[in-house]
Amino acid sequence: MGECVVVHLGDAEWMVVDSCVQTGSKSPVATEYLKQLGVSVADSVSTVVATHWHDDHVKGISTLLEEASKARFYAAGAFRQDEFLAMSQRTHLISKFSSGVQELSTVRQIVTQRRKVGGGALEQVSAVQRISCDPSRAVSEIWALSPSAEDKERGIEHIASLIEIQRGKASRIPSLPPNDVSVVLHLETAAGAIILGGDLEHHRSTRARGWHAVLDHQGRPTSRATFYKIPHHGSENAHCPEIWQHLLADHPVCVMTPFERGKTPLPRESDVIRLRENLDRVFITSDRRYASARRNANVDKAIRSGTRSFRPNTLKMGHIQARVVNGSWDVRGNEASAMY
């Protein structure tokens, strides 16, 4: 369970979007990957982005940010609101799957300390905001395309509701399905644009939220993406047909991560069929499973009786590496990844 994107911006400068940890360790996958390439995380990671605060996108992000001592940290504008600050102080809460609140609290401490000494601090992002511009780099521009003003307000309302629940002595953060403040990134490169879709969802009933708000914003970059990180693990609730019509080039390379936790693993079979109808190159970071462990029947019964839902973690961790070679995308994976 988890998603992380590592981008070489050019000239030995790197960006990390979201975080997850290596299976069996507490080490962020981004730091392990970069070290395998001989890249100094402290010297070369200039940008760390948290698209939103769901556990499968932030686990290990405070450890990553602490090691990336020169990096600036970017998150949705709601991050600085009083409601988010109050939530970060409730470190004893247990989030749905791991410790997202603890990550939030630790990131705040790191950002505050760096601000005191004049180092890299927090940058708020919102709809259609250019984060960086350097024409000499391979990635010449980085834009945030979301969240919209309406989504930001919805996100603040949700956090406020969590605080009220905590006053009622709830011990667990409830699941909040809408990814209201998810950040979508648009990267300009010589090989075409890249869109990293985060977990932004599609709200069919309004043009003020989600992908409709991205599409309708007059200031967004107009170049179409040749590479697309599919949002929300390929789920139907993030599927907006207009994306294929207005944001993506013909025959883009598309990648996604699975989600193995909860009652319904993603992508569903119906999601894969839908994606195949729209695309001819769709890669998933992992499609290989471990054999399910054999447990004593009494042990299995005891586990299930003490949990709301139970699904053994059988998916192998995988990754996809995409590079531009002679003007076109060269996509490779490890033994766990697959092409649909």
Describe this structure in words.
The chain has helices at residues 29-36, 41-44, 55-58, 61-67, 82-88, 100-116, 149-167, 210-216, 241-246, 269-278, 297-305; strands at 5-10, 13-17, 45-49, 72-76, 122-125, 129-133, 139-144, 185-189, 193-196, 225-229, 248-256, 282-284, 320-325, 328-333, 338-339. The protein is an alpha/beta fold and 340 residues long. It has a single domain (5-339), classed as Metallo-beta-lactamase, Chain A, CATH 3.60.15. It has an eight-stranded mixed β-sheet. The chain has a five-stranded mixed β-sheet with strand order 1-2-3-4-5. Strands 13-14 form a two-stranded antiparallel sheet. Helix 8 (210-216) links the parallel strand 9 and strand 10. Helix 4 (61-67) packs parallel to helix 6 and helix 5 packs across helix 7 (149-167). The chain starts with a strand and ends with a strand.
Write a compact overview of the structure shown.
Helix content is 29%, strand content 22%. By secondary structure, it is α/β, with parallel strands linked by helices.
Number of domains: 1
Helix and strand sequence: EEHHEHHEHHEEEHEEHEHEHEHEEE
Assign the CATH architecture.
4-Layer Sandwich
Strand order of the largest sheet: 6-7-8-9-10-11-12-15
CATH level 1 name: Alpha Beta
- How many beta-strand elements? 15
In angstroms, what is the radius of gyration?
A: 20 Å
Distance between the termini: 20 Å
Contiguous helical run count: 11
- The computed structural class is alpha/beta
Q: In which range does the helix fraction lie? A: 25-40%
State the low-pLDDT regions, or none.
94-98, 168-176
> What is the fold-level CATH name, i.e. the topology?
Metallo-beta-lactamase, Chain A
> How would the global form be characterised?
globular
Which sheet architecture does the biggest sheet show? 8 strands, mixed
Instruction: Kindly report the average pLDDT value.
Output: 85
What proportion strand? 15-25%
